[in-house]
Write a structure and sequence with these properties.
The chain is mainly α and 172 residues long. The chain folds into two domains: 81 residues, Rna Polymerase Sigma Factor, Chain: A (Orthogonal Bundle); 73 residues, Winged helix-like DNA-binding domain superfamily/Winged helix DNA-binding domain (Arc Repressor Mutant, subunit A, Orthogonal Bundle). Helices cover 76% and strands 0% of the residues. The protein contains seven helices and no strands. Helix 1 crosses helix 3, helix 4 packs across helix 7 and helix 5 packs antiparallel against helix 6. The longest helix is centred in the middle third of the chain and has 31 residues. The protein starts with a helix and ends in an 8-residue tail after the last helix.
């Protein structure tokens, strides 16, 4: 299949939103989504599918493949950067170690001051548990977990700011 510039423009206008939404659902960040959406249409222009029968399916398949490639690349990049941030032989500069220890102590103090339910919710969510799993652990309705988490985060933030000596209540 050969695509003329006029056909390409019409296809771009017709399918751009569909492809963009798919990327945004998978990646969630605007800048890479826009770049990847353009890349899908470049692939369409330079290497179109043989048949036009299921063009939306072809575009979405290309988008999903590009999104997975992007996410894998980002994961590898983050691992590399984290590795570079660590000093050779696992030695961390003294200032950084002191700051990390202080932050950890403050987090532990704040968690200790929270109710057991709030503490469990925050810890489980931080470990990647789903709302359904959290609701089973604390024995509440799944639909209540979001509200409980939001309130627990607010309490934690208030406690943390109080320990740091900041008063952020004015900004709310």
């Amino acid at each position: 299949m050969v695509i003329t510039p006029a056909e390409f423009e019409a296809l771009f206008q017709s399918y751009y939103t569909l492809v963009y939404r798919k990327f945004y659902y998978l990646i969630g960040e605007r800048a890479p989504v826009e770049d990847l959406t353009q890349e899908v249409f470049l692939k369409l222009y330079h290497n179109p599918p043989r048949e036009k029968d299921n063009l939306s399916g072809w575009l979405l398949r290309v988008a999903v493949n590009l999104a997975y490639n992007y996410l894998r690349g980002e994961k590898r990049r983050r691992r590399r950067e984290e590795g570079q941030c660590r000093e050779k032989d696992g030695i961390i500069p003294l200032e950084e170690a002191v700051i990390l220890k202080h932050d950890a102590q403050m987090v532990h103090q704040c968690l200790a001051k929270l109710s057991p339910r709030d503490r469990i919710c925050l810890l489980l969510k931080n470990d990647g548990y789903s709302y359904a799993e959290i609701s089973a652990a604390i024995q509440v309705d799944k639909n209540s977990v979001g509200t409980i988490l939001a309130r627990a985060r607010r309490r934690f933030s208030d406690l943390y700011n109080e320990l740091e000596g900041r008063d952020d209540s004015v900004s709310r």
